[in-house]
Amino acid sequence: MKQRLISPFAPSSRRRKGTAQGILEGRYCWDVGLDVYRSCSWREKREVLDSFWRTKTHPSNRINEAALEYGPYAAVFIALIVLELVPIIIFTIARANAWGWVAGVVEVGVVASFWWAVVRIRTLKSESSTPLVDANS
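RE: above sequence
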């Protein structure tokens, strides 16, 4: 059976509803597990980032829990950046382009950030097993 392509400019009655339309209408919902982080105020989100990326902070239980939620997503996105830079480095170095070396230096920094994110996730998980003192009291 031959299917006809329907223009995106066709009347909505003729268009099929695909995945993108379902996302826009709210039919598809992904639970990303960032409930505590999303409920934080702007100031608290800054504290979450500070708590996640730095070692000398003393966050409250809520901030630590939000940092634990934020951490795996940060690590995944950094890993995607690492993977994204690999073909760029290979292609530009193979063509003897100086940008390949610049991308290589950036890649080293991104890998170091990924390593630090993994270290901080492990540290926060170990700290969450011990009771924290609320920073506001």
